[in-house]
Amino acid sequence: MTIDSREVLLDELATVLQNDPGALDATDPRYVPGLHGTGAEDVVLTLARSIRRTTGSQLYYFSGQRGTGKSTELRRLAVELNGLSRTKAFIVDVLEYIGESHPIRTIDLLLVTALAFADRLSAGDAFGADFRRESVASRFGQWLQSDVQITSLTLGGAKMEFKRQQQSILQHIRDFDLAREERTLAQCREYIREMAVAVRQRFQVDKVVLLVDSLERLRGVGDSAAADMFNRVVKLFDADREHLRLPELQVVYAVPPYLPYLTNVGQYVSLSMLASVRVCEPPAKARRQPREQGLQVMRRVLDRRFPRWAELVSPEALDLLALRSGGDLRQLLRRFLLDAMDQGYYALDRLPLQADDPIITTVIDRHRVEFESMVTRDEYALLHAIAAVSALDLPRRSDWPTVARFFDIRAVLNYRNGVEWLDLNPLLWPLIERFAPVSDDTGSVSAPSGSAVA
To answer: Do the Cβ atoms of 206 and 246 come closer than 8 Å?
Structure first.
Protein backbone atom coordinates (compact mmCIF):
# COMPACT_ATOMS: atom_id res chain seq x y z
CA MET A 1 0.00 0.00 0.00
CA THR A 2 1.33 3.39 -1.01
CA ILE A 3 1.28 5.99 1.77
CA ASP A 4 0.24 9.46 0.67
CA SER A 5 2.94 12.08 1.33
CA ARG A 6 0.31 14.21 3.09
CA GLU A 7 -0.36 11.34 5.47
CA VAL A 8 3.34 11.16 6.28
CA LEU A 9 3.33 14.90 6.97
CA LEU A 10 0.29 14.51 9.22
CA ASP A 11 2.11 11.78 11.16
CA GLU A 12 5.14 14.02 11.57
CA LEU A 13 3.12 16.96 12.89
CA ALA A 14 1.00 14.73 15.17
CA THR A 15 4.19 13.24 16.62
CA VAL A 16 5.49 16.73 17.39
CA LEU A 17 2.20 17.79 18.98
CA GLN A 18 1.68 14.63 21.00
CA ASN A 19 5.17 14.63 22.52
CA ASP A 20 5.00 17.74 24.66
CA PRO A 21 8.59 18.83 25.42
CA GLY A 22 7.53 20.37 28.73
CA ALA A 23 9.50 23.30 30.08
CA LEU A 24 12.01 24.66 27.56
CA ASP A 25 15.34 26.34 28.06
CA ALA A 26 15.63 29.80 26.53
CA THR A 27 18.35 28.39 24.24
CA ASP A 28 16.02 25.68 22.86
CA PRO A 29 15.23 26.32 19.16
CA ARG A 30 11.53 25.83 19.99
CA TYR A 31 11.55 28.69 22.51
CA VAL A 32 9.73 31.84 21.34
CA PRO A 33 10.97 35.05 23.02
CA GLY A 34 8.50 37.81 23.77
CA LEU A 35 5.60 35.41 24.14
CA HIS A 36 4.06 37.47 26.92
CA GLY A 37 5.27 40.91 25.86
CA THR A 38 8.47 42.88 25.73
CA GLY A 39 9.90 45.85 27.59
CA ALA A 40 7.93 46.69 30.73
CA GLU A 41 5.60 43.73 30.12
CA ASP A 42 8.42 41.19 30.33
CA VAL A 43 7.85 40.09 33.92
CA VAL A 44 10.92 37.82 33.94
CA LEU A 45 13.36 40.63 33.22
CA THR A 46 11.53 42.89 35.66
CA LEU A 47 11.81 40.26 38.38
CA ALA A 48 15.48 39.64 37.56
CA ARG A 49 16.18 43.38 37.94
CA SER A 50 14.38 43.44 41.28
CA ILE A 51 16.45 40.51 42.57
CA ARG A 52 19.63 42.14 41.27
CA ARG A 53 18.89 45.37 43.16
CA THR A 54 17.96 43.86 46.52
CA THR A 55 20.07 42.31 49.25
CA GLY A 56 19.44 40.09 52.24
CA SER A 57 16.51 37.74 52.68
CA GLN A 58 13.79 38.47 50.12
CA LEU A 59 10.52 36.78 49.19
CA TYR A 60 8.95 36.78 45.71
CA TYR A 61 5.89 35.11 44.22
CA PHE A 62 5.71 34.11 40.56
CA SER A 63 2.56 32.83 38.93
CA GLY A 64 0.80 31.97 35.70
CA GLN A 65 -1.93 29.61 34.58
CA ARG A 66 -1.21 26.29 32.92
CA GLY A 67 -0.40 26.82 29.29
CA THR A 68 1.35 30.16 29.83
CA GLY A 69 4.86 28.68 29.90
CA LYS A 70 5.56 29.45 33.54
CA SER A 71 8.14 26.69 34.10
CA THR A 72 9.90 27.69 30.87
CA GLU A 73 10.05 31.31 32.00
CA LEU A 74 11.35 30.27 35.43
CA ARG A 75 14.22 28.57 33.61
CA ARG A 76 14.88 31.77 31.72
CA LEU A 77 14.87 33.64 35.04
CA ALA A 78 17.51 31.22 36.37
CA VAL A 79 19.66 31.86 33.28
CA GLU A 80 19.30 35.63 33.71
CA LEU A 81 20.25 35.43 37.39
CA ASN A 82 23.20 33.13 36.84
CA GLY A 83 24.45 35.62 34.25
CA LEU A 84 24.78 38.26 36.96
CA SER A 85 28.08 38.70 38.74
CA ARG A 86 28.36 37.01 42.15
CA THR A 87 24.86 35.46 41.97
CA LYS A 88 23.94 31.76 41.99
CA ALA A 89 20.39 30.54 41.28
CA PHE A 90 18.86 27.05 41.49
CA ILE A 91 15.44 25.68 40.51
CA VAL A 92 13.73 22.95 42.53
CA ASP A 93 10.36 21.28 41.95
CA VAL A 94 8.70 20.36 45.24
CA LEU A 95 5.92 18.39 43.55
CA GLU A 96 8.52 15.80 42.64
CA TYR A 97 8.36 14.90 46.35
CA ILE A 98 4.65 15.26 47.22
CA GLY A 99 1.44 14.92 45.22
CA GLU A 100 -0.39 17.97 43.89
CA SER A 101 -3.54 17.08 45.85
CA HIS A 102 -1.66 16.72 49.15
CA PRO A 103 -3.28 18.93 51.85
CA ILE A 104 -0.13 20.97 52.28
CA ARG A 105 0.92 22.93 55.35
CA THR A 106 3.78 25.35 55.91
CA ILE A 107 5.90 22.75 57.70
CA ASP A 108 5.38 20.30 54.79
CA LEU A 109 6.50 22.88 52.24
CA LEU A 110 9.61 23.87 54.17
CA LEU A 111 10.59 20.24 54.72
CA VAL A 112 10.36 19.31 51.04
CA THR A 113 12.02 22.61 50.05
CA ALA A 114 14.99 21.77 52.27
CA LEU A 115 15.14 18.24 50.88
CA ALA A 116 14.81 19.44 47.26
CA PHE A 117 17.53 22.07 47.81
CA ALA A 118 19.88 19.42 49.23
CA ASP A 119 19.16 17.14 46.27
CA ARG A 120 19.80 20.00 43.86
CA LEU A 121 23.14 20.81 45.48
CA SER A 122 24.12 17.16 45.02
CA ALA A 123 23.82 17.51 41.23
CA GLY A 124 26.91 17.60 39.04
CA ASP A 125 26.60 21.29 38.13
CA ALA A 126 26.52 22.24 41.83
CA PHE A 127 28.59 20.43 44.48
CA GLY A 128 28.14 16.98 43.00
CA ALA A 129 29.18 14.09 45.23
CA ASP A 130 31.21 16.56 47.31
CA PHE A 131 27.98 17.84 48.90
CA ARG A 132 27.70 14.73 51.06
CA ARG A 133 31.00 15.67 52.66
CA GLU A 134 29.68 19.10 53.65
CA SER A 135 28.92 19.43 57.35
CA VAL A 136 25.39 20.68 56.71
CA ALA A 137 24.61 17.71 54.47
CA SER A 138 25.77 15.21 57.08
CA ARG A 139 23.78 16.84 59.88
CA PHE A 140 20.71 17.35 57.70
CA GLY A 141 20.72 13.69 56.66
CA GLN A 142 21.04 12.53 60.28
CA TRP A 143 18.22 14.88 61.34
CA LEU A 144 15.93 13.56 58.60
CA GLN A 145 16.42 9.99 59.81
CA SER A 146 16.28 10.64 63.56
CA ASP A 147 13.71 13.44 63.94
CA VAL A 148 11.62 13.21 60.76
CA GLN A 149 12.13 9.45 60.63
CA ILE A 150 12.80 9.06 56.91
CA THR A 151 14.71 5.83 56.42
CA SER A 152 16.59 4.52 53.37
CA LEU A 153 17.08 8.03 52.03
CA THR A 154 20.21 9.28 50.27
CA LEU A 155 20.70 12.96 49.51
CA GLY A 156 20.97 13.41 45.80
CA GLY A 157 18.35 10.77 45.09
CA ALA A 158 15.64 11.29 47.66
CA LYS A 159 12.69 12.09 45.38
CA MET A 160 11.27 8.62 44.85
CA GLU A 161 11.93 7.44 48.39
CA PHE A 162 10.29 10.50 49.94
CA LYS A 163 7.28 10.24 47.64
CA ARG A 164 6.95 6.53 48.45
CA GLN A 165 6.93 7.27 52.18
CA GLN A 166 5.01 10.54 51.81
CA GLN A 167 1.87 9.52 53.71
CA SER A 168 3.67 8.04 56.72
CA ILE A 169 6.26 10.85 56.88
CA LEU A 170 3.76 13.69 56.73
CA GLN A 171 1.35 11.95 59.08
CA HIS A 172 4.24 11.59 61.53
CA ILE A 173 4.83 15.35 61.29
CA ARG A 174 1.09 16.06 61.62
CA ASP A 175 1.13 14.22 64.95
CA PHE A 176 3.73 16.62 66.40
CA ASP A 177 2.55 18.82 69.23
CA LEU A 178 2.79 22.58 68.68
CA ALA A 179 6.17 22.98 70.36
CA ARG A 180 7.75 20.19 68.33
CA GLU A 181 6.21 21.48 65.10
CA GLU A 182 7.61 24.96 65.72
CA ARG A 183 11.02 23.47 66.51
CA THR A 184 10.96 21.42 63.28
CA LEU A 185 9.98 24.52 61.29
CA ALA A 186 12.91 26.42 62.76
CA GLN A 187 15.29 23.52 62.06
CA CYS A 188 14.17 23.33 58.41
CA ARG A 189 14.82 27.04 57.99
CA GLU A 190 18.22 26.73 59.64
CA TYR A 191 19.33 23.85 57.40
CA ILE A 192 18.26 25.82 54.32
CA ARG A 193 20.23 28.81 55.62
CA GLU A 194 23.34 26.69 56.10
CA MET A 195 23.00 25.27 52.59
CA ALA A 196 22.84 28.81 51.21
CA VAL A 197 25.96 29.75 53.17
CA ALA A 198 27.74 26.68 51.78
CA VAL A 199 26.80 27.77 48.24
CA ARG A 200 28.11 31.27 48.86
CA GLN A 201 31.40 29.98 50.11
CA ARG A 202 31.80 27.29 47.44
CA PHE A 203 31.02 29.55 44.47
CA GLN A 204 32.30 32.82 45.95
CA VAL A 205 29.00 34.64 45.40
CA ASP A 206 27.15 37.25 47.43
CA LYS A 207 23.63 36.24 46.53
CA VAL A 208 21.89 32.83 46.42
CA VAL A 209 18.47 32.55 44.80
CA LEU A 210 16.18 29.53 45.13
CA LEU A 211 13.32 29.17 42.61
CA VAL A 212 10.61 26.82 43.94
CA ASP A 213 8.51 25.58 41.03
CA SER A 214 5.12 23.86 40.53
CA LEU A 215 3.19 25.01 43.60
CA GLU A 216 0.59 26.60 41.31
CA ARG A 217 -0.55 23.03 40.55
CA LEU A 218 -1.80 22.41 44.10
CA ARG A 219 -5.46 21.43 43.93
CA GLY A 220 -8.10 19.45 45.78
CA VAL A 221 -10.21 16.78 44.09
CA GLY A 222 -13.94 17.29 44.78
CA ASP A 223 -15.79 20.33 46.09
CA SER A 224 -14.91 19.99 49.77
CA ALA A 225 -11.27 19.08 49.05
CA ALA A 226 -10.97 22.00 46.61
CA ALA A 227 -12.33 24.44 49.21
CA ASP A 228 -9.98 22.99 51.82
CA MET A 229 -7.00 23.31 49.46
CA PHE A 230 -7.93 26.92 48.70
CA ASN A 231 -7.97 27.76 52.42
CA ARG A 232 -4.65 25.97 52.94
CA VAL A 233 -3.00 27.80 50.04
CA VAL A 234 -4.20 31.19 51.29
CA LYS A 235 -2.91 30.42 54.78
CA LEU A 236 0.40 29.14 53.39
CA PHE A 237 1.24 32.01 51.04
CA ASP A 238 -0.58 34.85 52.79
CA ALA A 239 -0.95 34.31 56.53
CA ASP A 240 2.28 32.28 56.89
CA ARG A 241 4.34 34.18 54.34
CA GLU A 242 6.98 35.26 56.86
CA HIS A 243 7.83 31.60 57.49
CA LEU A 244 8.54 31.30 53.76
CA ARG A 245 11.04 34.16 53.81
CA LEU A 246 14.23 32.12 54.20
CA PRO A 247 17.42 33.45 55.82
CA GLU A 248 20.46 34.04 53.56
CA LEU A 249 18.30 33.47 50.46
CA GLN A 250 16.26 35.30 47.93
CA VAL A 251 13.46 32.82 47.24
CA VAL A 252 10.86 32.78 44.46
CA TYR A 253 7.81 30.57 44.93
CA ALA A 254 5.53 29.63 42.04
CA VAL A 255 2.03 30.21 43.43
CA PRO A 256 -1.52 29.50 42.17
CA PRO A 257 -2.81 32.12 39.70
CA TYR A 258 -5.86 33.03 41.78
CA LEU A 259 -3.76 34.18 44.74
CA PRO A 260 -3.19 37.81 43.58
CA TYR A 261 -6.87 38.18 42.68
CA LEU A 262 -8.41 36.78 45.84
CA THR A 263 -6.01 38.11 48.49
CA ASN A 264 -4.10 41.34 49.09
CA VAL A 265 -0.80 39.45 49.31
CA GLY A 266 0.59 41.71 46.57
CA GLN A 267 0.81 44.50 49.14
CA TYR A 268 3.33 42.51 51.15
CA VAL A 269 5.20 40.33 48.64
CA SER A 270 6.65 41.23 45.23
CA LEU A 271 4.41 39.30 42.83
CA SER A 272 5.02 38.65 39.11
CA MET A 273 2.24 37.25 36.95
CA LEU A 274 2.47 35.70 33.49
CA ALA A 275 -0.55 36.43 31.30
CA SER A 276 -2.12 34.33 28.57
CA VAL A 277 -0.95 35.12 25.03
CA ARG A 278 -2.89 38.21 23.99
CA VAL A 279 -4.84 36.90 21.02
CA CYS A 280 -7.70 39.38 21.64
CA GLU A 281 -7.71 43.14 21.96
CA PRO A 282 -8.34 44.54 25.47
CA PRO A 283 -11.97 45.29 26.39
CA ALA A 284 -11.46 49.05 26.38
CA LYS A 285 -10.30 48.94 22.76
CA ALA A 286 -12.26 46.21 20.99
CA ARG A 287 -13.74 43.55 23.24
CA ARG A 288 -13.09 39.99 22.04
CA GLN A 289 -11.75 41.12 18.70
CA PRO A 290 -8.64 39.43 17.21
CA ARG A 291 -5.26 40.97 17.97
CA GLU A 292 -2.94 40.41 15.04
CA GLN A 293 0.29 40.59 17.06
CA GLY A 294 -0.93 37.85 19.41
CA LEU A 295 -1.98 35.62 16.53
CA GLN A 296 1.44 36.09 14.95
CA VAL A 297 3.05 34.91 18.17
CA MET A 298 0.92 31.75 18.15
CA ARG A 299 1.91 31.08 14.52
CA ARG A 300 5.55 31.59 15.46
CA VAL A 301 5.26 28.94 18.19
CA LEU A 302 4.10 26.40 15.62
CA ASP A 303 6.75 27.59 13.14
CA ARG A 304 9.46 26.73 15.66
CA ARG A 305 8.07 23.23 16.17
CA PHE A 306 6.97 22.30 12.65
CA PRO A 307 7.80 24.75 9.83
CA ARG A 308 5.63 22.92 7.26
CA TRP A 309 2.38 23.27 9.23
CA ALA A 310 0.75 25.51 6.57
CA GLU A 311 0.65 22.51 4.22
CA LEU A 312 -1.84 20.90 6.59
CA VAL A 313 -3.85 23.77 8.09
CA SER A 314 -4.30 27.23 6.63
CA PRO A 315 -3.11 30.33 8.54
CA GLU A 316 -6.75 31.47 8.80
CA ALA A 317 -7.79 28.13 10.34
CA LEU A 318 -4.87 28.26 12.77
CA ASP A 319 -5.85 31.81 13.75
CA LEU A 320 -9.39 30.66 14.45
CA LEU A 321 -8.17 27.83 16.66
CA ALA A 322 -5.76 30.21 18.42
CA LEU A 323 -8.64 32.61 19.15
CA ARG A 324 -10.81 29.81 20.53
CA SER A 325 -7.92 28.66 22.72
CA GLY A 326 -7.87 32.03 24.44
CA GLY A 327 -4.09 32.18 24.03
CA ASP A 328 -3.51 28.84 25.77
CA LEU A 329 -0.67 27.11 23.92
CA ARG A 330 -1.48 23.71 25.37
CA GLN A 331 -5.12 24.01 24.32
CA LEU A 332 -4.11 25.08 20.82
CA LEU A 333 -1.36 22.54 20.16
CA ARG A 334 -2.28 19.42 22.11
CA ARG A 335 -6.05 19.61 21.89
CA PHE A 336 -7.38 21.62 18.94
CA LEU A 337 -4.59 21.12 16.44
CA LEU A 338 -3.83 17.49 17.31
CA ASP A 339 -7.54 16.66 17.10
CA ALA A 340 -7.81 18.41 13.72
CA MET A 341 -4.80 16.51 12.38
CA ASP A 342 -6.31 13.20 13.50
CA GLN A 343 -9.47 14.07 11.54
CA GLY A 344 -7.34 15.14 8.59
CA TYR A 345 -6.28 11.54 7.93
CA TYR A 346 -9.77 10.92 6.59
CA ALA A 347 -9.90 14.04 4.43
CA LEU A 348 -6.48 14.25 2.74
CA ASP A 349 -7.99 15.93 -0.32
CA ARG A 350 -9.12 18.88 1.87
CA LEU A 351 -5.65 19.67 3.17
CA PRO A 352 -4.66 22.28 4.11
CA LEU A 353 -7.80 22.62 6.23
CA GLN A 354 -9.53 25.97 5.81
CA ALA A 355 -11.19 28.00 8.56
CA ASP A 356 -14.68 27.05 7.31
CA ASP A 357 -13.90 23.34 6.97
CA PRO A 358 -16.37 21.18 8.94
CA ILE A 359 -13.40 19.49 10.63
CA ILE A 360 -12.36 22.79 12.25
CA THR A 361 -15.97 23.46 13.29
CA THR A 362 -16.36 19.95 14.71
CA VAL A 363 -13.12 20.17 16.70
CA ILE A 364 -14.12 23.48 18.28
CA ASP A 365 -17.64 22.24 19.06
CA ARG A 366 -16.38 19.01 20.60
CA HIS A 367 -14.05 20.82 22.96
CA ARG A 368 -16.68 23.48 23.70
CA VAL A 369 -19.13 20.80 24.88
CA GLU A 370 -16.43 19.17 27.01
CA PHE A 371 -15.48 22.50 28.54
CA GLU A 372 -19.07 23.53 29.25
CA SER A 373 -19.50 20.33 31.26
CA MET A 374 -16.76 21.52 33.63
CA VAL A 375 -18.94 24.32 35.03
CA THR A 376 -22.31 23.92 36.71
CA ARG A 377 -25.53 25.87 36.28
CA ASP A 378 -25.24 27.55 39.67
CA GLU A 379 -21.86 28.99 38.56
CA TYR A 380 -23.21 30.71 35.43
CA ALA A 381 -24.16 33.93 37.26
CA LEU A 382 -20.64 34.30 38.66
CA LEU A 383 -19.06 33.69 35.25
CA HIS A 384 -21.46 36.17 33.66
CA ALA A 385 -20.50 38.83 36.21
CA ILE A 386 -16.78 38.32 35.56
CA ALA A 387 -17.31 38.55 31.78
CA ALA A 388 -19.43 41.70 32.12
CA VAL A 389 -16.74 43.77 33.85
CA SER A 390 -13.55 41.89 32.78
CA ALA A 391 -12.57 41.73 36.42
CA LEU A 392 -13.57 40.20 39.75
CA ASP A 393 -16.33 41.94 41.69
CA LEU A 394 -17.48 39.18 44.01
CA PRO A 395 -20.61 39.76 46.12
CA ARG A 396 -19.76 37.01 48.63
CA ARG A 397 -16.58 35.75 50.24
CA SER A 398 -18.01 32.25 49.93
CA ASP A 399 -17.50 32.54 46.15
CA TRP A 400 -13.71 32.62 46.51
CA PRO A 401 -13.05 28.86 46.31
CA THR A 402 -15.29 28.67 43.23
CA VAL A 403 -13.35 31.44 41.50
CA ALA A 404 -10.09 29.71 42.46
CA ARG A 405 -11.39 26.63 40.62
CA PHE A 406 -12.24 28.81 37.59
CA PHE A 407 -8.58 29.84 37.39
CA ASP A 408 -7.45 26.26 37.94
CA ILE A 409 -9.53 24.79 35.09
CA ARG A 410 -8.90 27.91 32.94
CA ALA A 411 -12.55 28.88 32.80
CA VAL A 412 -11.25 32.39 33.57
CA LEU A 413 -8.11 33.68 31.84
CA ASN A 414 -5.91 36.63 32.74
CA TYR A 415 -4.41 39.04 30.20
CA ARG A 416 -2.22 42.12 30.17
CA ASN A 417 -2.38 44.79 27.45
CA GLY A 418 -0.93 47.69 29.38
CA VAL A 419 -3.47 46.92 32.13
CA GLU A 420 -4.55 43.65 33.71
CA TRP A 421 -7.92 42.25 32.68
CA LEU A 422 -9.86 39.00 32.78
CA ASP A 423 -12.17 37.16 30.43
CA LEU A 424 -13.82 33.79 30.19
CA ASN A 425 -12.28 31.00 28.19
CA PRO A 426 -13.69 31.51 24.65
CA LEU A 427 -15.17 28.00 24.77
CA LEU A 428 -17.55 29.34 27.43
CA TRP A 429 -18.57 32.49 25.57
CA PRO A 430 -21.66 31.03 23.80
CA LEU A 431 -22.97 29.33 26.95
CA ILE A 432 -22.62 32.32 29.26
CA GLU A 433 -23.83 34.85 26.66
CA ARG A 434 -27.12 32.92 26.50
CA PHE A 435 -27.44 33.24 30.26
CA ALA A 436 -29.53 36.20 31.51
CA PRO A 437 -29.02 36.72 35.27
CA VAL A 438 -31.88 38.02 37.40
CA SER A 439 -31.12 40.55 40.16
CA ASP A 440 -32.96 40.31 43.47
CA ASP A 441 -33.53 43.12 45.95
CA THR A 442 -30.16 42.52 47.59
CA GLY A 443 -28.23 42.98 44.36
CA SER A 444 -27.28 39.32 44.13
CA VAL A 445 -27.66 37.57 40.78
CA SER A 446 -29.05 34.14 40.06
CA ALA A 447 -30.24 32.03 37.17
CA PRO A 448 -33.75 32.92 36.02
CA SER A 449 -36.45 30.54 37.25
CA GLY A 450 -37.08 27.76 34.79
CA SER A 451 -34.26 28.91 32.52
CA ALA A 452 -32.97 26.34 30.10
CA VAL A 453 -29.31 27.03 29.48
CA ALA A 454 -27.84 24.25 27.39
So the answer is: no
